[in-house]
């Protein structure tokens, strides 16, 4: 089981450690630093490292390495999932999962870690239960606490943990009963040089924000549930009901949570909302090149494509770029060689274009690699797969809740090869 | 500590946990508070107290923990019970003996049937952790009832609990395919869980139990289809999860390629994937490459070859070569892609391309020589040894088609001493090839290289190869040509597949570290403890066949499982002395004109082998086994047609089902199972040799170590054709009893060495004694009485044969089939008394009295023999015969 946890920042300082069994010396992290050095890029540190006596399983989140030490054969996915859960909890409690936030709330962090894991076994990881045990810090509460001397720790037993619905706390009360669902779809795609789609799929999630009193039993149905053939559910969803009727039936946790995530992979269902015309070339022996990129809307179902940002990792030999954009602004970082073009909204009448000259290191050979263009965009009020919520019914409680559904489509890993 | 403020209490506890170790005497003062808190009305505090106590690793405190822990394990509140369950594991870690003595393990086992799923999950987790340090104990002894409980708890417990339960389920061995299917059905919903660890654990259970399902079953196909989407979904998660998932998918794709064959595209690489994900994706792409999708794959690979990361580009180029070798139809396209890449003149791409083109030549000889010219243009840019060696190999192999081959090779020769060994060896071979192909022009060159290799080099490999070529060339150039230019076997399709036996084991470990490292857990788990070998269950066609003894689940360790002899051991002295050349009868003939040291070795080995067989031998001192081993030589065979002895049982003696003697894991892929039989007077060893490795096996030979009854093979082990991978062959090896005698312990222990082209393997097995019962073992009545009286009473041993429901007549006819002869039958006070005799191959007589009570299924067997050591084994033989 999980033995210890070290939090390490980007400059290699261990700023927090927690041991659930006997104490493991910090020196075990040296193996991690070694691997980190070898990997050069922070993202490339292998997640599983073996050392003579331990295994180090790490994740990299928000510029912090969460390095866990294990001694026996433990499923690595279990450890990785747990570490992500820890990071999620910090995010949830402190609003951000950063070194400063953790250092500012070090007492709560230790209390949380102690509640989340017992002897390496996960104890309470649901945010609903944790919040009942340890209240998240708010400015108001810290003021009140410092005056009254009361604490952040709840003194009630987390009843939810014992019931058959461990994810929901008991005795929830709201004056306004609301249930919101955000259908968020991300398009992952690889577009090749000629503009045809090499690979495309939709990663969708339904994030919910449920503020309902008592023990509501919800059922959510879709207009076209057939779209969802590859789905991962929150534990609250009754699987049998989905299998037989294609209805999501569940008693929700209180607050924000991810209800389902799904994947639509058949290519004819995945519409590609933008196209990119590009011309990037480097001249032989002249230490310069040309750059010309235009972005235009494609199948966007009549909605506006907005929030368009293009990032390009230029080859190492590129020294600088002098470009002009018809819309938005661009920056080029000569150290990381990343070109970022913040386009904004695409108007079909006047297509945004960025073009100009690339300056190369003089004398360097013509770069071999073709930079990939990474595109981000957003389309409001549209689920690109066509998924539509039909209705939401509530059983078990008398009041009438306010319901809302929001759709949004975003670019996920959307790459255009040149 | 006695505060009511929960936060303060928690912080004090936290402090205690951290500092108790450094001040144990101070910590002990806290015990009272802990004990008091364990009885607090608030379950939260009870649980907190028991939890904290377990974390204090001070021996003195541990003693006081037992009572509160026992109470908490039976607490009315499930929250306390589940915390206490984990505490048992903590305590076990500190003091294992204490946990066993206090009976906590049994309490923990009871918790598996707890009403609360969370408690069940924690109990399972704690037991699994404890079991890991006690590999032999069957703490998690699962039966259908407990499995049912676990499956019910599975639906209701937390995600982490589900992982523990699924991992535990994976260790269970269903009794038939129906049970396997029903478990699979109940596990399948877990594939849609949001937690990827749950998903992967569920995949493990399904992959394992699927092995038992018949392939014709509709359900089998449905299950295959259901497995693909969750695996693909794992790839949309964070990169760390992707990495672990990909390592596991790599295994799954090798075991069951059909699952993901249509999902090629999800493995396409995105440029901002971390490098460790990229490399894994590439590996899986090649494994999935087939004729149907090769065009797509090649286009992708070509794209990757222009990426920034050098490691990745190299692997991509290599992948193109592997595609060519794997999918024959695509070879041409692959070669042209590689040529395109060579045109880019990027140094490392060119070098990598040349290395893979060499492999393509080895797979498809004489097909793509047209590209050689292009390759030669890039000769000067090669600076890596592997690429240089590859290029030299190509030049040597196709020397006759390259006009300036001699010049090219000569240019390499200039810096001979600065090259790496790999290049030097290759250059030597290439020049010899060239010489054999164009002898007139290259005499000087070959002499130069031979002298460089033999005189100026410190490398023994290089020198030896140099000398071999030199002598070959000077003795018989024609033979040299045959040797050096012999047709080479084509390289196999996939050289990097995991051995099937290892793969099967790894499939049982999906989702664990073993699956990430692709090594069996024994290879890296600390100290080797806690490693239980896991194997896939055998497929059972139907439930009926599952009940027959042959298909008993492989995972159940048989009581008399043969042990594999470690390669080094004193006992093996004899075995090792016997060289394992194929035991040809007659003196070895040196046929080869090449003088090889090996011939002498072989001869020497055989001499001692023959000597052992023909020469007289003294029995080892102190043994009771008479030394007239030569006598029964005739007797065994003499009575060939005389065996019926009045009873019409021609069936021969009882033959036990075959058991695995030598598992493939221990013998580089060769699995041997077998049994012994006695048919009409001759003993034979019935073997099944199975090749579970990836290469062809040939040149089999077998040899026995000296044993108690002089058993020895009567004929060489004849495997006519080489054994192809995944093929098995059945052989009946006749045995005789004229071999050397040495008393073994146990008496019927037989140590065997088997040789093939790969290695020599040793194992030992126990043979049933009844194969040594000869057909003329019937004693005259008078003789029997006299002998019975003559043998002193202390030589008499009594045994009980339990649970045998046969009557006296069927017993005696059954035993007669195995050459145990009934001489007289008496009825004394309602009991049947059978008087029997049998004779062993070495002339030892054994007399028996068998008492059968009609109402009692237990028989009493009294055995009298001049060599009482054998009695026990005779009894075992009785039992085996009567119970089968």
From TrEMBL, chain A:
Location of the MHD domain: 176-417
Gene3D superfamilies: 3.30.450.60, Mu homology domain, subdomain B (2.60.40.1170)
Keywords, ordered alphabetically: Cytoplasmic vesicle, Golgi apparatus, Membrane, Protein transport, Transport
GO cellular component: clathrin adaptor complex; cytoplasmic vesicle membrane; Golgi apparatus
PROSITE patterns found in the cross-reference section: CLAT_ADAPTOR_M_1, CLAT_ADAPTOR_M_2, MHD
Mode of membrane association: Peripheral membrane protein
Family membership noted in the UniProt record: Belongs to the adaptor complexes medium subunit family.
Protein name per Swiss-Prot or TrEMBL: AP-3 complex subunit mu-1
Species name: Pipra filicauda
UniProtKB/TrEMBL annotation, chain B:
GO molecular function per UniProt: clathrin binding
Gene: AP1B1
GO cellular component assignments: clathrin adaptor complex; cytoplasmic vesicle; endomembrane system
Protein name as annotated: AP complex subunit beta
SUPFAM superfamilies tied to this protein: ARM repeat, Clathrin adaptor appendage domain, Subdomain of clathrin and coatomer appendage domain
Biological process terms in GO annotation: intracellular protein transport; vesicle-mediated transport
InterPro entries tied to this protein: AP_beta, AP_complex_bsu_1_2_4, ARM-like, ARM-type_fold, Armadillo, B-adaptin_app_sub_C, Clathrin/coatomer_adapt-like_N, Clathrin_a/b/g-adaptin_app_Ig
Protein's cellular compartments: Endomembrane system
Domain Beta-adaptin appendage C-terminal subdomain stretches: 773-883
Region ranges (Disordered): 529-564
Keywords: Acetylation, Membrane, Protein transport, Transport
PANTHER family to which the protein is assigned, alphabetical: ADAPTOR COMPLEX SUBUNIT BETA FAMILY MEMBER
One Pfam family from the record: B2-adapt-app_C
Record-annotated Clathrin adaptor alpha/beta/gamma-adaptin appendage Ig-like subdomain domain positions: 654-764
UniProt keyword Zinc, yes or no: no
Lipid bilayer topology: Peripheral membrane protein
Family classification: Belongs to the adaptor complexes large subunit family.
